[in-house]
Amino acid sequence: MLEWFTRLLKHEPEAALFLCLAMGFTIGRVKLGPIKLGGICGTLLAALFVGQLGVELSPVVKNFSFALFIFALGFTAGPQLFANLDRSAWRVATLSIVEFVSVVTVVLVAARLLGLDPGSSAGLLAGGATESAVLGTASDAIGRMGLGSGQEQKLQANIVTVYSISYLVGLITIVVFTSQIAPRLMRIDLAEEARKLWASLGGSGNKEGQSVLPSIVHRRFDVTATHKTVGDVEGTTPTRLSVVRVVRDHERLALHRDLELAPGDDILVVGHRAAVIAGTQGIGREQAEELSSAEPLSTRELVVTRKEIEHRPLSELGAVLRDRGHTSLQLGGVRRAGKSVPLLPETQLIKGDVLKVIGTAPDLEKAAQGAGYLVPVGASTDLVLLAGGIVVGYLLGLPHAHLGSLELSLGTGGGALVAGLLCGYLRSRHRRFGTVPPPAAEVLKDLGLATFIAAVGLGAGKHALEVVERYGWTLPVASFFVTLLPALASLLLGRYVLKIAPPVLLGAVAGQQCSTPAINTVVGVAGNTTPMLGYTVTYALSNVLLPLLGPLIVALAARGH
Amino acid sequence: LIVQSHVEPVMSWLASLFQRFPELAIFLSLALGFAVGKIKLGRFRLGGVGGSLLVALLLSHTGVKIDEGFKAVFFPLFIYAVGYEVGPQFVNAMHRSALHEAGLALFLAITGLLTVVLLAKWFHLDKGLAAGIAAGGMTQSAMVGTADEAISRLGLPTAQAQALHGNVALGYAVTYVFGVIGAIVICTGILPRLLGRSIREAALSAERKLLSGGMPNDEHELPSLPRLVGRAHRVSVGAGKTVEELEERVDRTASIEYVRRRGARLSPALGLRLEADDIVIIAGRRDGVIPLGEFLGPEERDAPDSGISVVRRQVVFTAKGHNHLTLAQMRRLVGAQIKRGAYVASLTRLGNRLPIAPQTMVEHGDVFEIYGTKRDADQMASKLGYVISADDKTDFIYLGLGLLAGVLLGLSSIKLGGASVSLGTGGGALLSGIAFGWLRAKRPVFGAFPAAATSVLKDVGLAGFAAAVGLGAGQEAWLVLQRDGLKVFGLGALVTIIPLGLSAIFARYVLGFRNTAELGGALSGAQSSNFAFGEVLAQAENAVPAVPFAISYAVANIILTLLGPIIVAIV
After folding, report:
1. Nearest CA in chain B to A58
2. B455 with A58: Cβ contact below 8 A
3. Inter-chain contact B456–A436, Cβ cutoff 8 Å?
4. Among candidates A96, A68, A159, which has minimal Cα distance to A553?
């Protein structure tokens, strides 16, 4: 049975890959106390196990998948990364810098003490910082050192094996530290601090769900009033309320402000709650049933590109659109650089703002011509962008620079990451730029990384036991310090020098190591999402910059070794 | 020659780059291929898959080597995703039209066989070349394997058998590219003319027909009047009534969630008697909230900040003992245990919205959308079944298991008249995709695979596979083409065009296919051409062509594979 199975997997390595994914994500779901391993770590363990049978996966699959993963990572992180470089976030962002400097220092000290080779050092860093992408960039760097292929393979396998051990230790350390130990060190009650912070930020009550009284409402009336025009109903503030549809004798009438409503008309009104209540007073009987022929309203994103509406306050926007006959449109929100802008009458629009507009499809199309363009619904991935971006990334990764005796280069992984960042940033500025929709980027990231991890795990399986025997207990201990010391340094700096609010600080410490399990646990203990305020800042930076440490640590460790 | 002197250094630079990073050749093929595929020649567009194949062929000059393992991973990914999407509809469509698609696949195989045999006779082709041209012209790579196997069993001297084997590969390599491109052109360029309607229009009208009675569940579109509403009222006519009396009057289709009296908040217990000038917030179905409001008093413009929030929950109906009940029966059975304050906003089955009427029958696996205050909605959800989490993360356990099952299914073979026939990876992954997709639709508790994720995996999977094929088949094909390839190429083109053309006419006038999108799917499936199907699908912009494709593809994969030994025997 086992022999048949081994032969099958050797002959059809893709079956081994799919097996590792299924096994790995199952392992990843198992809970050890508050800690879940996660699918990526699970896949690595499964692959190391299956790798004992001597199955190997095509290197093209491995590198192709990694490139997809790291480009998608950059693409999704791009807009946030640049947004976090502004003034308001610098204090929290400093902690990521602390992480980079201290983690490299600790790893180099450990490498000197234990006599680790460059591969094992990189693995220690990747696992200690719980950042899997380092595996790819570090193996790539080792591949460029021009070693014999036997030596090269061994070093690359060492990265993976050491990583699997230090990841486990690092994961447990960071989760327990941020959620249990750090609050005690600071002598605070995390839940209480989080509650206070939430209140000081103007939040109230339970945040799940939406208000029972939403601000935009839709109502349908059978008109009984006489001598009322559309303009009378809409009043002087048509941005707050509009008549969307008038049906008389089964015919839909063309809308304009002077249209006089007649008894028996069937009208649909959309707008802000208070305005609708005021405007429809005495207009007729409200109806509950939806017209079967009713045009549904769509919610679409509209990107501002036209000069004529730039720098005009929102209070005038309605008039501008109305001149063009866009009677049904409602503004649901404005986002600038990915953040919501308050909807005040004096808010001015600028090019690149993304308006959330609600209206019937024909009106939306018309509005688009006047203001900018609509972001397509259900956009599919632009493969020219995805594949072309990766090609550019590879080319970026080719040149190398000399820093003293150090030879440094982005490598193909780093190059693809930088290309992804740029494309993501450009996309956030110019919506016409091609896209990778978020769920597609998610699956590329997850499947790309999992496939890559399965491939390296299968390849390293043979050497795994050997490495574990060689270093024994020293490796888990070293991993513990690689995770703990940078976190501790950030905690002290953030608490006593930068004076960051404790819930935000703990979130930021979790984020500087890109640890999703840690932030989930911290949020659980805090009882609200205030730690996310810190996490999103450091996560965006670390997620992008930690992978670039891969080539650096390999170069530094190779010199010391 | 001038061009060559410019191209040569670029090619050799690329060659050295691809030697270090073979995957770069694939990415470059995809990027350029999708860019080329966007170019319109008249009304025809080659599309990204065909474009990738062509660019890959050009790049294959560099001699880059892509191993088989790459294709073995990405091809099943594509075909599994197709099956997964189509699974729910496939099972429903099986009884309706399966015979037509199967008939089409059979017809195409027979005309293909006749074309090859006749051409072999007229042009004196040997067994190997004939089988190779058949495999390439009809883009069925499994035929290469079965023909090779049949040739080995002929008991010929080694040298002669060797030559035949070589000819199989040669014929396949030279004719394959036209097989792909020709099928794309016929299915997306010529079919719309034959049937007089574009694929997109036909796909839209077929979708509308499928959905008669239901609505597509599009999260970007809201009904113009949301079903569930909340309002604030100032009590006037309702003074003196209890909460229970008022809610009873609207048959419990709306409830009082909040009462404020002289600035103090009261708990809206059923026995509470309302007084004039109380401010109350009511929530529920629109047809209940409107009359309830009229029983209370005028609507309050400046709504109080109640802090009450409502949630939506997607719940898969799995409650034991309540399967196959009407909504009215359900309400009687479950209603007594459910507090007021939670309402059903929508009901969907296999992705289609059902009417919420008393006679609507609910089945296990249906998805209820529940709306209400958090506590009440959660309580109702727990009575009905599992809550589906809102995050759109792909379930990799399910995906991995499905792909594994597909590979194993594709490997298992049966003996059919001396030849061992297997579904092949394509057929196996397709069947497993259909089964897993159908299971997911029946019980959406596990196996999430969001649409954007399926779509990108399909694109990357198929185009990556095409690029790998082009990069691999290329160099050989160029060499052969330079010698006497033109004859082989021309014959291959005939083997592509004649069966496809006859089948299209047969489908239109004998089998009665009217819909361009459906026939495009069925025809590309009958030819087992994933590439043509990919383009049909891209132009349809919905899953309509996938159902007919899945049926004819499954049948064609088996029949066309069998043609290998038959051709070797006859020619």
Report:
1. B69
2. no
3. yes
4. A159
Q: What is the C-alpha separation between B378 and B446, in angstroms, rounded?
A: 20
Please give the span between the terminal C-alpha atoms of chain A, in angstroms, as a whole number. 45
Shortest distance, CA B280 to any CA of chain A (angstroms): 12
> Which residue of chain B comes nearest to A398, CA vs CA?
B17
- Do A48 and A27 touch, CB atoms closer than 8 A? no
- Which is nearest to A241 in space by CA: A331, A325, A314? A331
CA distance A541 to chain B (A): 23
Domain that holds residue A161: 56-196+392-414+448-560
CB contact under 8 A, A25 and B222: no
For B158-172, B250-264, B418-432, which range has the lowest pLDDT when averaged over its residues? B418-432
Report yes or no on A216 lying in a domain.
no
- Half-sphere exposure at residue A278, Cβ-oriented, CA atoms within 13 angstroms: 17
Do the Cβ atoms of A58 and B69 come within 8 Å? yes
Instruction: Tell me if A299 and B396 make a contact (CB, 8 A cut-off).
Output: no
Asked if residue A39 belongs to a domain, the reply is: no
3-state secondary structure A167-188: HHHHHHHHHHHHHHHHHHHCCC
Q: What are phi and psi of A236, to 5 degrees?
A: -90, -5
Q: Which residues of B touch A246 (CB under 8 A)?
A: none
The answer, yes or no, to whether residue B62 has pLDDT greater than 70, is yes
Q: Indicate the helix (H) or strand (E) that contains A136.
A: helix A133-143
Q: Which chain B residues are Cβ-neighbours of A378 within 8 angstroms?
A: 220, 451-452
pLDDT in tens, A478-502: 889 989 999 999 999 988 888 888 8
Q: Which of A18, A217, A277 sits opposite B403 (nearest CB)?
A: A18
* A4 in a structural domain: no
Model ipTM? 0.74
Residues A447/A103, Cβ–Cβ less than 8 Å:
no
Please, which residues have CB within 8 angstroms of residue B117's CB and are 6 or more apart in sequence? B130, B567, B570, B571
Q: What token pair was written down for A292?
A: 């079967």
Alpha-carbon distance of B62 to B64, in angstroms, equals 6
Residue A216 is given by DSSP the state E
Cβ of A450 within 8 Å of Cβ of B396? The answer is yes
Tell me if A379 is assigned to some domain. Answer: no
CA-CA distance, A538 to A474, in Å (whole number)?
30
Contact assignment for B232 to A213 by CB distance below 8 Å:
yes
| Opening angle at CA B264, ends B258 and B265, nearest 5 | 25
Nearest to B224 among A18, A295, A381 (CB): A295
d(CA A415, CA B186) in angstroms, rounded, equals 41
Domain total for chain A?
1
